[in-house]
Design brief:
With about 250 residues, the chain is α/β, with parallel strands linked by helices. The chain has two domains: about 55-120, membrane protein fhac (Ubiquitin-like (UB roll)), CATH 3.10.20.310; about 125-245, 3-Layer(aba) Sandwich (Rossmann fold). About 40% of the residues lie in helices and about 25% in strands. The strands form three sheets. It has a six-stranded mixed sheet with strand order 7-8-9-10-11-12, covered by helices on one side. The chain has a three-stranded mixed sheet with strand order 1-3-2, covered by helices on one side. Strands 4-5-6 form a three-stranded antiparallel sheet, with no helix packed on it. The longest helix is centred in the N-terminal third of the chain and has 32 residues, at about 20-50. The protein starts with a helix and ends with a strand.
Length: about 250
């Protein structure tokens, strides 16, 4: 036997038995893979297919103008639907179609409660039409209507009240800028156009506001006028151009 053959035989004897050692590791990897797949399948079944985590209760919070049962009906959440399958975005859109609702959030509270948190539109003015009093929010959206005039809201007088009407938007912009010390004494806001807003105060004074711009300057000027004794007695105060005060 040659020296080379002897070296090859010796090397083979020293080589580890790779196949025998690797086989347990492969079985271990297969077992772990099957275990993970089984756990994931069980979780998916619990979330999507079982009766363990389904909608059992629908709660509504933040509602005052809109009845809670009407909000729940608009949400269209069937009891028994798996919680994980709820399309919260679509539910939110359905709730926000209600005229009283400005925005909504849909919350899952495991194991079986869905909570609808609504932010309602806030009425800031009222106008009369067809024997009804219609409440408008700051955007000109009709929030609700009543058979009698609700207290505490100024009357809006415009030709075509609504969110797309420029006169309406101008009048409501002025309303939103007024501090409480002025808005609390406001009886009516009139707008014949986007640059022709007039305020009628409860004490009988008329304030010609003009365009909605420069609200800060106009408020400071009006405050200064109304603080004086003569200012309280004035019938008309024109602050449409703050540089030139006109009174009657």
């Amino acid at each position: 036997m040659t020296e080379a053959q002897t070296d090859r035989r010796a090397a083979r004897r020293e080589e580890p038995a790779g196949d025998g050692r690797g086989r347990p590791n492969r079985w271990k990897a297969i077992f772990v893979t099957l275990l993970v797949a089984g756990v994931l399948g069980l979780v998916a079944w619990v979330l999507l297919g079982s009766r363990l985590l389904v909608v059992r209760h629908v709660e509504v919070t933040g509602a005052d103008l809109a009845p809670r049962d009407r909000i729940a009906a608009a949400a269209e959440i069937p009891v028994g639907t798996p919680m994980a399958r709820l399309r919260t975005g679509a539910i939110r859109e359905r709730v926000e179609r209600l005229r009283e609702v400005e925005s909504a959030e849909i919350e899952r509270h495991w194991p079986g409660t869905v909570r609808i948190v609504v932010r309602e539109r806030v009425p800031v003015a009222v106008f009369a039409r067809g024997g009804r009093y219609h409440l408008l929010d700051r955007y000109g959206v009709t929030v609700a209507d009543r058979g009698s005039r609700p207290p505490g809201l100024p009357v809006l007088t415009v030709a075509s009240p609504g969110p797309s009407d420029t006169a309406t938007r101008a009048a409501l912009t002025v309303l939103s800028e007024l501090p409480e010390r002025l808005s609390g004494g406001l009886a009516e806001v009139e707008a014949t156009g986007p640059e022709a807003v007039t305020l009628y105060m409860k004490d009988g004074q008329t304030v010609v506001w003009g365009a909605a711009e420069r609200a800060g300057e106009k408020i400071r000027l009006l405050d200064a006028v109304r603080r004086t004794v003569a200012g309280r007695a004035l019938r008309t105060v024109d602050i449409s151009s703050p540089e030139v005060l006109k009174t009657k």
